[in-house]
Amino acid sequence: MTIDSKILGMTTIIECKSKTYNYVSQGTGFFYAELEKEDPQKVDTMAPRWRKIEGTWLVTNRHVVFPKVKQADGSTIETIPDVFMFAMREVRNGKVEWVPIELSRDELLKRTKLHPDASIDVAAIQVDDLQVKIVRDNPDKQFVGGIHLTNDNLPSNKQPTIEATSDIVVCSYPYGFYDQENKFPIIKSGIIASYWGANFNGSPHFLIDAKLFHGSSGGLVISKPLDLAVINGNVMTSKDKQYTFLGIYSGEYTHTNSKGEEESFGLGIVWYSYLVPQIINEGVSPVAK
């Protein structure tokens, strides 16, 4: 399967609506599946490696799921949208069309998990039953789906080594802009701009040098897909291009200078991918406001 098909199947546009706070906001998300642990007795055999999918999650930013709204006094509050929408895709008459899936306020709260540290801008929403229901209820439709990132794509399970200056790719829907005919996201490239594996300024994220825009929040960040690499001193090749799930983009990095002014360096914040399984396994439910 080409990298184009994989990206098409695993990414989605997100839209939130609130009557209470009178907003419509947009962001990006992607699908992540937790697989059961590998059976060590089958790893080095030619036998089929069937593994149970323990859950499929829509991953994005916390601020995409619960948009912040500015108050009259200048402060901001985290809100819960009345309607949260993401989508699958269907091929209809040779054209790719969105298949919207809407969650009410209560459904969103019930399905969402957050990191216990509220400053970590990542959220995971369980969606496997919703996807299965749509496919089962529409057996005659041709869906683009069944493609997810998994824990196998995490850096701890992939080669080659990632480090500062490594090439990265961000898949997102900036300002809701994308290929309308194919519903394909916009792909932007860049490099890792901070110490890989270290917490930048004590927070579990790293920085990338890539020019991105509003709406890209929640975007998928992966290593540049390659079919040729040097691993342990050996030149290796792969039939399918290989990539590593690096993290979740959450916005532009800014710095307050000595004059109290906000400065931008054209850098972006990416939360480490290892936070996703942490949130799925140890996360907390949001508190209704």
Blueprint of the fold:
Elements: H1 3-10, E1 11-18, E2 23-35, E3 53-60, H2 62-65, E4 68-70, E5 76-78, E6 83-92, E7 95-104, H3 105-111, E8 112-114, E9 123-126, H4 128-137, E10 142-144, E11 149-150, E12 167-172, E13 186-192, E14 205-209, E15 220-223, E16 226-231, E17 234-242, E18 245-256, E19 262-272, H5 275-282
Parallel strand pairs: 2-11
Antiparallel strand pairs: 1-2, 1-6, 2-3, 3-9, 4-5, 6-7, 6-10, 8-9, 12-13, 12-15, 13-14, 14-19, 15-18, 16-17, 18-19
| Largest beta-sheet details | 9 strands, mixed
CATH architecture: Beta Barrel
Separate helix tally: 5
Overall residue-averaged pLDDT value: 90
**DSSP summary, beta strand count:** 19
Question: Poorly predicted ranges (pLDDT <50, ≥5 residues)?
Answer: none
Order of helices and strands: HEEEHEEEEHEEHEEEEEEEEEEH
CATH topology: Thrombin, subunit H
Helix/sheet category: mainly beta
Q: What is the 3D shape?
A: globular
Q: What portion of residues belong to β-strands?
A: 35-45%
Instruction: Tell me the count of domains.
Output: 1
Give the fraction of residues assigned to helices.
10-25%
Terminal CA distance reads 44 Å
What's the alpha carbon Rg, rounded to whole Å?
Answer: 19 Å
